[in-house]
Input
Amino acid sequence: MSRAEILSNIRRGLGRGEASEAQRKAVFNRLNAKANNLIPKRSQLPHAEQVELFKSMAQEASAEIIELSSTADVPKTVTDWLQNNGIKELISSSDAELNELDWSPLGDIQRTQRVAMVGDMASITTSFAGIAETGTLMLHSRGESPTTLNFLPDVHLVVLKRSTIVGPYEDAWKKIRGTFGKSMPRTVNMITGPSRSADIEQTLQMGAHGPRTLVILLIND
Output
């Protein structure tokens, strides 16, 4: 079924006809204005307090946070985490930020740059922003970081710079629009904690639709 047919069916269901030129113009003006919605007071804080709020909200959502002084500490920290959890392979994005690091501490752990596949145990990516309002990560798709890395492996390790944390969702969207303009990424993912569902008999299941474990490597930068 085409897009036009789908929209036509929706209009019939709502008892509406084709939009008038004035209605179309009103909708386009509203979209182009990109006005803020209501912003929770808890996110309207100085940046240092936004960082603390992000950490608190992310941990409340069952994410693990490891604070590091610099990105140079990432390989050793990741190695220790993987070894402690018996994981022998790491699927990685090919971001320049990660490629420039010294991954020799991995030793026998294999770091492979490719799309993630079912059965992969752990992946590592960078993130675009952190959202303090709910402890959420904003990631976007691109050639060097396929979206599969965010959802297929059991463990998702994410590098997040403290300087990229913002207060509300509105600021995160402004940040990504300011970076990409009209050439927005094909996919923007909002990730709050590991995947979970209580749809089956109201029993919480971790990893229902994505990683069972989310580890945020928070860089003091």
The first helix runs from residue 3 to 14. The first strand starts at residue 64 and ends at 68. The mean pLDDT is 90. The radius of gyration is 20 Å.
